[in-house]
Specification:
With 359 residues, this protein is an alpha+beta fold. It is 18% helix and 30% strand. The protein has a six-stranded antiparallel sheet. A hairpin with a 2-residue loop joins β6 and β7. Bound molecules: 2,5-dihydroxybenzoic acid (GTQ).
């Protein structure tokens, strides 16, 4: 037996394809190279949203729209490669939420997983599952799928944070469920500091609470002072990863696994002057610059960043980070779709064959 070859003319083929349309069928062979690509070539464009540009636009929104009208007053970070979809990468969404003094973002719950990484704030809080979590710059607050949450600003200054959600994935799967709580806030049932006291004291865990895998971390608040201290301590004795410097993951203390079923959260310290090696992985990422000045090469595109900027890296794109300061460390927060890629068996990672991206 052997592969066969036919000698149809272009005209015969086109007329056959046209005729197939009425049956709602189409040939696979005309699209084979697109739907079974040799390797991923993401439509996602590596891109930076500079804080100096975004902050004034977020403030302008506060003059035009209230939290009653908006429910969430958020500027969506629209990836220029994704044709107007609510998506920052193929799976992840980033948005800038602004809450003015005295305002509440009313209580709701939804199937999308969400995180908040605080950019500017003197306090305020997100209430999740009955506990109020403070929101200070650099703090990470999780709102796992289907947990009630509301946000409030009881300070004198506007609050800004980065919202990270798996909206593009959830909407692709047509899995969006959403409930509005009948009141603006949901009841507080936990004492302040409860989640951190139970699940955030080194590896100490309460004995009377069963350690179950709930899919999401029972610790929902990772304050910046502890995060920064952990990075700085680790950086004194360890080189870290060749690709990411001193990179730590915010884990679920019950399982050691990712923070939420679809989103993993990370934070890294790049030493003064550090240039990492280049690698690529199938997961896509959204980064937020807590502090520092530098750039990230994504293929031949240079993403220059400084304090409070947000940027994204597509899956399967070679990238390397550079801290341009000769004296100060840089701190980057990031979130990725790693749990999704791992669960589906799609996770792959490889170093750049030349070590760095050739300039
Ligand atoms: O604060 O719950 O950016 O539901 C998008 C959807 C934030 C939120 C977003 C949301 C939220």
């Amino acid at each position: 037996m052997e592969v066969s070859s036919k000698k149809a003319t272009e005209e015969e083929l086109q007329s056959y394809y046209k005729g197939l349309e009425q049956y709602n069928v189409a040939p696979l062979w005309t699209v084979m190279a697109d739907i079974q690509a040799h390797e991923p070539a993401s439509k996602v464009i590596p891109y930076v949203w500079p804080w100096k540009d975004i902050r004034p636009q977020a403030m302008r929104a506060t003059e035009l729209v209230g939290t009653a009208e908006a429910e969430r007053r958020v500027l969506r970070l629209m990836n220029p490669g994704l044709g107007g979809r609510t998506a920052t990468t193929q799976t992840l969404f980033g948005g800038i939420q602004t809450v003015l003094p005295g305002e509440i973002s009313p209580a709701h719950r939804h199937t999308p997983a969400a995180l908040r990484f605080i950019i500017e704030s003197d306090g305020g809080y997100t209430a999740v599952g009955g506990e109020r979590f403070p929101m200070l710059p650099g703090d990470l607050v999780l709102t796992p799928p289907w947990s009630w949450h509301d946000h409030a600003n009881d300070t004198k200054n506007p609050m800004f944070w980065l919202d990270g959600l798996d909206l593009p994935l959830v909407n692709y799967l047509e899995m969006s469920f959403h409930d509005q709580y009948p009141e603006d806030t949901h009841p507080i049932t936990e004492s302040p500091g409860s989640s951190l006291a139970k699940y955030g004291s080194m590896a100490l865990q309460p004995t009377w609470i069963e350690r179950k895998d709930e899919g999401s971390s029972p610790l929902m608040y990772y304050p910046w002072d502890r995060t920064r201290e952990a990075l700085e301590k680790l950086a004194t004795g360890e080189d870290g990863s060749p690709y990411d410097g001193v990179l730590m993951e915010y884990t679920n203390p019950s399982t050691g696994g990712h923070a939420m079923p679809t989103i993993a959260c990370f934070v890294q310290l790049l030493r003064p002057g550090e240039r990492t090696k280049a690698h690529r992985h199938t997961t896509s990422s959204i980064y937020h610059v807590v502090e520092g000045k530098g750039h990230t090469m994504v293929g031949d595109k240079k993403l220059s960043w400084e304090d409070k900027d947000t940027f994204c890296i597509p899956g399967w794109a070679f990238h390397e980070h550079v801290n341009e300061s000769p004296t100060e460390p840089a701190f980057l927060f990031s979130y990725t779709d790693t749990p999704v890629m791992k669960a589906l068996g799609y996770f792959r990672e490889e170093p750049h064959p030349e070590g760095n991206i050739p300039s």
